[in-house]
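Morning run. Coffee first, then this:
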Amino acid sequence: MFKALVMTKDADSGKASAAIEELNEDQLPDGEVTVAVDYSTVNYKDGLCLSAKGGGLVRNYPHVPGIDFAGTVEASSDDRYKSGDKVVLTGWRVGEAHWGGYAQKARVKADWLVPLPDGLDARQAMAVGTAGFTAMLAVMALEDHGLKPGQGPVLVTGAAGGVGSVATAILGHLGYEVAAVTGRPETGDYLKSLGATQIVPRNELNETVKRPLESENWAGCVDAVGGDMLARVLGQMKYGASVAAVGLAGGAALPATVIPFLLRGVNLLGIDSVMQPFENRKRAWQRIATDLSMDRLEAMVQPATLSDLPKLGADILAGQVKGRVVVDVNG
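And here it is:
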């Protein structure tokens, strides 16, 4: 038997609710690898899955949410993993269509796992989680398109959130100037502690302007906001610079023109973390282990247990979670 946070749906109201239950290992879904989970985390998608309607992501109940987890292999029918191996999982619609990490045990396909790299333990991996993994993918994409330190400030929008916090810390550790955008002035000192060299108030960028091009301000950008802010930022990028789009906190619409692409050669790079192939996942996690300061990572951690998750799910949807939540599923 093991503990899990289980979502069930009321037949009359159609609303889902969460409760900690004792489950039997036989109730776990099919998969080649059974993992003893040590830690999970809270991402925006987790907030949606924990909501009364499942955020449109959860189709079948009862359901165990948690799109990320890290732990130790207990049993494996796949030769790539053996008992005692340390592993991490993000994406693949785990926690949405497949039972996830808000439990002391999980069973998944071997293809979905990544060996935990040297220099990173399970708790640190979940301080990173999908948000930090996405941030690393964004930094890698910007570098693959020519970004180097010394070219000018790199903008990070939604900087106090999960993706933004880790992106700020990674870029700062790599020696970039980081301009952190936030609508919460009280997070300024926090962002500077992560490596931001400049704080940009959100209201300076969250309105579109008639001019398709403005001054060339940014050598690169990790954008977690989308919407009007992304449209505005595109017109402020340096010649040949790239924006890595990772989120849509400000909306899915993009009221932009093609002028920045045609006259400045700006690149808009889409970043998906869910279906990334194994080799790119492995590369990203290895980069995380070497290019993210563990001290800065620890500074953004908020500890939690399974019982805290319903409230934290609502908080992250309301934009009230700063940094990264690490869930001790055995706590």
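The mean pLDDT is 96. Good start to the day.
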